């Protein structure tokens, strides 16, 4: 009987340790889109001109609309675009946006960045996932050449009527509500409507631990995300256009402690950005290896803890407990002790 129990427990323990050893920790890189992955601003450079509207005039009107009506600025431009589409008798459909997405320019190296980084992470035993968190239009990003590289694209989007015409904003993503998506990714509660994202979740149940999250962005609208990620132990990177080389923003962000790194938005294999992200992957992998060892140590330590708890319970109840129960408890404690390595008396 004792031998059987011990053999079973031994087998269970080995299985548990095997499962710990073969676990594959996840890591996420979250990207802003405009001026982070793409040198342009998709609304200004592609979408608005495609309507034969002057971009400067469009933004002037849209900002005026926001100011005069105390409107959220993203809702204002989304409204303004629908207003123009009606005025120009040119209804906008999802396919129209997707078509525009095909022509969105990308920074150097972006197209093969994802596969390169995935491979690098995989070598270190890390599963790397990519996410977009952008105020730009989701439908345009979905049309871009890199759309399939992302596990999720969180961005502003329209609600479409049954016949496929954009009618109302479905999502308006701005700088502060951008942060909710970091929580969604960490907790693995991905759907935009799912309010379980506010439920508290212990560290060890997270889909991706916060310290395994990287955020890459270029501007003030990224600050809340950069701050959130960095303050929770993750990494934030500020990027700037390699050609224009305008660095005031990143110097400021760095001095204010909002970012861990800054680099030109060059995603090619020998770039600074590649070097930094590889460093982060190395560091995440090293920390995860430590976590794995600690989880293995915890197997025996947790058993010791349970044994101690049982001993305490036994001490408290042994006066009143029936003989049979007492005997069973003594037996279990003995078995547990025998099973815990080392001298524990
Ligand atoms: Mg941006």
Shape: elongated
CATH architecture assignment name of the largest domain: 3-Layer(aba) Sandwich
Oligomer: single chain
Query: Taking all residues together, what is the mean pLDDT?
Result: 94
Major sheet details: 7 strands, mixed
Q: Return Rg in Å.
A: 27 Å
Counting DSSP E segments of at least 2 residues, the number of strands comes to: 7
By CATH, the superfamily of the largest domain comes out as: HAD superfamily/HAD-like
Contiguous runs where pLDDT drops below 50 for at least 5 residues? none
**Which cofactors or ions or other ligands sit in this model?**
magnesium ion
CATH topology description of the largest domain: Rossmann fold
Q: Kindly give the count of domains.
A: 2
One letter per element, helices H and strands E, the order comes to HEHHHHHEHEEHEHEHEHH
Content of β-strand: 5-15%
The percent range for helix content is 40-55%
What key attributes describe this structure?
345 residues, alpha/beta, Rossmann fold, 2 domains, 7-stranded mixed β-sheet, 12 helices, 7 strands, 14% strand, binds magnesium ion
Short description:
The chain is α/β, with parallel strands linked by helices and 345 residues long. The chain is 51% helix and 14% strand. The chain starts with a helix and ends in a 6-residue tail after the last helix.
Structure characterization notes:
With 345 residues, the chain is α/β, with parallel strands linked by helices. It has 2 domains: 2-21 and 292-339, no CATH class; 26-39 and 105-287, 3-Layer(aba) Sandwich (Rossmann fold). Helix content is 51%, strand content 14%. It is built from 12 helices and 7 strands. The protein has helices at 2-21, 42-50, 55-69, 73-87, 94-102, 110-123, 138-143, 179-187, 223-231, 248-255, 272-317, 323-339; strands at residues 26-31, 127-137, 152-160, 166-171, 213-217, 235-240, 261-264. A 7-stranded mixed β-sheet has the order 4-3-2-1-5-6-7, with helices on both faces. α11 (272-317) runs antiparallel to α12 (323-339). The longest helix has 46 residues, at 272-317. The two termini are 24 Å apart. The model has no long low-confidence stretch (mean pLDDT 94). The chain binds magnesium ion. Magnesium ion binds at residues 32, 34-36, 218-219.
């Amino acid at each position: 009987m004792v031998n059987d129990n011990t053999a079973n427990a031994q087998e269970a323990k080995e299985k548990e340790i095997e499962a710990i050893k073969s676990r594959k920790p996840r890591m996420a890189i979250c990207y802003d889109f405009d001026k982070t992955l793409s040198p342009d601003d998709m609304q200004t450079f592609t979408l608005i001109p495609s309507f034969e509207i002057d971009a400067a005039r469009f933004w002037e009107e849209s900002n005026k609309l926001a100011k005069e009506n105390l409107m959220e600025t993203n809702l204002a431009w989304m409204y303004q675009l629908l207003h123009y589409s009606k005025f120009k008798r040119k209804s906008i459909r999802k396919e129209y946006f997707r078509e525009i997405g095909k022509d969105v320019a990308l920074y150097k190296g972006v197209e093969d960045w994802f596969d390169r980084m995935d491979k690098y992470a995989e070598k270190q035993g890390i599963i790397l996932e990519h996410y977009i968190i952008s105020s730009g239009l989701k439908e345009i990003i979905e049309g871009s050449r890199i759309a399939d590289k992302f596990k999720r694209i969180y961005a502003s989007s329209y609600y479409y009527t049954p016949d496929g015409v954009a009618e109302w904003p479905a999502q308006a993503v701005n700088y502060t509500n951008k942060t909710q998506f970091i929580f969604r990714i960490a907790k693995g509660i991905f759907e935009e409507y799912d309010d379980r994202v506010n439920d508290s979740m212990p560290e060890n149940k997270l889909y991706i631990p916060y310290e395994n999250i990287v955020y890459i962005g270029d501007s003030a609208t990224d600050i809340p995300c950069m701050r959130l990620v960095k303050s929770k132990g993750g990494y934030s990177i500020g990027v700037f256009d390699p050609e224009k080389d305008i660095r005031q923003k990143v110097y400021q962000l760095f001095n204010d402690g909002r970012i861990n790194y800054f680099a030109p938005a060059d995603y090619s294999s020998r770039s600074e950005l590649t070097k930094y992200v590889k460093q982060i992957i190395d560091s995440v992998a090293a920390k995860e290896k430590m976590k794995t060892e600690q989880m293995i140590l915890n197997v025996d330590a947790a058993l010791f803890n349970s044994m101690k708890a049982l001993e305490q319970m036994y001490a408290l109840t042994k006066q009143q407990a029936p003989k049979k129960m007492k005997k069973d408890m003594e037996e279990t404690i003995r078995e547990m002790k025998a099973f815990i390595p080392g001298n524990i008396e």
